[in-house]
Amino acid sequence: MEKIGIFYGPAEGSSTEKVAQKVAEQIGGEKSDLVPVKDATAKDLKKYTNLIFGISTVGKETWNGDPPPGDWDKFRIELDKTDFQGKLVAMFCLGDQITYPRHFADALGMLAEKLIPKQAEIIGYVDPNEYTFEESQGIYERKFIGLPIDEDFEAHLTDERIRNWLDRILPRFK
Ligand SMILES: Cc1cc2nc3c(=O)[nH]c(=O)nc-3n(C[C@H](O)[C@H](O)[C@H](O)COP(=O)(O)O)c2cc1C
């Protein structure tokens, strides 16, 4: 298997960073690189056929004005410059299903909207029945288009969720 690029944001003590590190640990060995998106460019993305993207959902409607720009806002432009044909992309997304049940893990949908038209092969869909929520922009074909992780209310399930997800996606990587 070629090395996996784990591109994640926000960085610096965020839950997303914690989960990205857990993902890398569970993959094990030297089989992945952890790349904070705040410093990354399209050139970095180009190096990998196998990609894992990590993001968190910080809903716009919870702010009085626009939310402060996050690491992914800048990196989105780098996604636009990237040719995803032939690349395999799996995504995980931090969210909180109890406080934000109508917007749970919405950021998955934001990433999917970018990646689908660019012909990325998205792997690692997840059964929504494993969560308690009402609506999410991350649902495609009745499944989450990536792995939601709820560190606020179900942190005890995080390790197991990562394990089950990796068991399914690692054999798919090239
Ligand atoms: C202001 C604010 C807005 C949030 N909005 C959402 C939301 O719309 N949907 C959701 O699933 N989680 C939402 N969350 C929960 C975060 O996604 C969750 O706490 C996550 O673990 C944060 O990860 P981070 O530290 O990597 O940013 C919100 C959290 C905050 C503080």
Describe this structure as you would to a colleague.
With 174 residues, the protein is an alpha/beta fold. The chain has a single domain, classed as Flavodoxin domain (Rossmann fold). Helices cover 28% and strands 20% of the residues. It contains five helices and eight strands. It has helices at 15-27, 42-46, 71-80, 107-115, 158-169; strands at residues 4-8, 32-36, 50-56, 88-94, 121-123, 139-140, 143-144, 147-149. The strands form two sheets. Strands 1, 2, 3, 4, 5 and 8 form a six-stranded parallel β-sheet that branches. Strand 4 (88-94), helix 4 (107-115) and strand 5 (121-123) form a beta-alpha-beta unit. Helix 1 (15-27) packs across helix 5 (158-169). The longest helix is centred in the first third of the chain and has 13 residues, at 15-27. It starts with a strand and ends in a 5-residue tail after the last helix. The mean pLDDT is 94. Bound molecules: flavin mononucleotide. Residues 10, 14-16, 56-59, 62, 94-96, 100, 103-106, 151-152 line the site of flavin mononucleotide.
